[in-house]
């Protein structure tokens, strides 16, 4: 009986340990976009990092869709050994002004296809570098929906967008965060400085006005006091004369 009880206890401990280990396994890696300096209105080089999540299949194609609601006039790919990059363009609803020229179409998708003998194998990842610009000035981030195709035919769609107040989706789309341009930051600082200076000047002006008003009232008070004292003295004299 003791042996049976011990075996049951060990089995329960093994199940608990297995559950604990399963919960401790990190979440699968996602396709991401990275940049060292992505400023609004500027140009930058980004890297789309594609990890292979399968233990049995290899990645042989990667498609990245560029946002046409914030199109960019300049898009260039960096050669990746063993991969062929193809860019597709789409017509814009509203022409894009770039250095005085009207751009009527922009790159909407980039597809990297592995050549024979090339692939992203299990436990590996690959960076695909792209030069982009000019980055938009009216948004703080760009979303790039991506598709990852494996050699067994599976396609993983990294297209889900995160929403405020909700947990991260299971297949999130790569998002590039944009920072304010240095000039815009300086302009904002100057604007705040100007506002502060104006406030200080207004406060000083109000203080001067208040001081001037106080002095005027003080003088008026003195005059009224003198006149009152004079009238009082005259009244006393008249009473003394009558007596």
UniProtKB/TrEMBL annotation:
Gene3D superfamilies: Uncharacterised protein YcnI-like PF07987, DUF1775 (2.60.40.2230)
Keywords, comma-separated and alphabetical: Membrane, Signal, Transmembrane, Transmembrane helix
Membrane-traversing stretches: 217-236
Ranges in a coiled coil: none
Chain positions covered by the region annotation Disordered: 184-210
Segments forming domain YncI copper-binding: 30-178
InterPro entries the record matches: YcnI-copper_dom (IPR012533), YcnI-like_sf (IPR038507)
The name this protein goes by in its record: Membrane protein
The organism of origin for this protein: Kitasatospora phosalacinea
